[in-house]
Input
Amino acid sequence: MLLVFFRYLFAVIYHKYCIIIAGIYVNRKLRSTSYYVSLSRLFLHDLSKFSSDEFWPYAQYFYGKDKNAELFHRAWLHHVAHNDHHWEHFIVEYPSVSKILWDNPQLKLTIHPMPDQAIIEMIVDIMAADRSYNGRWPDPLKKDGWKWMTDNYEKYRLHSNTRIKLTAVLCALGFEKILPIDFDWNSIQYSDLTNEDKFKLFQLKQLAQINN
Output
């Protein structure tokens, strides 16, 4: 039991360390634009994992002998509800469809837009997860340099404006080649995004032309 506790505690703390590193990297890459993630978000990232609702269910599921899938699922729902860097947080019906969502792309859902900083934190989280759990940072120079993003990008159920922003940020960071589809920058102009958002995305387009 003690070993399970410390193994999971180390995993969470190491992931939070990787979050800080990835966040600083992303902020530096995006410094010529209006996009960034605040230091407070980076330091408070995944704080709910230390709560009683999440810590032991996660620890037992990943490192214990007795894996309780239902208890882990309830912990996951708690985590999503308390952390807006997860895209699932913005799906109104998520608690009732969470177990079937990935395999049913035809589901009709009510999806709200993600705030800009939540989008950046999501990107940072996926980058840090690759490093802390798979042992490597995403590599923008290789087409297969970020397999998780390549494999799951189209499975994310996002508001249309969130998808535009997510894709534009990924391109600005130099990850255009890992995307499974080409991004149409004209989609920004035809969207219902505000003029302020469109200007911010134009900044990303300029950076993407440099980094890809």
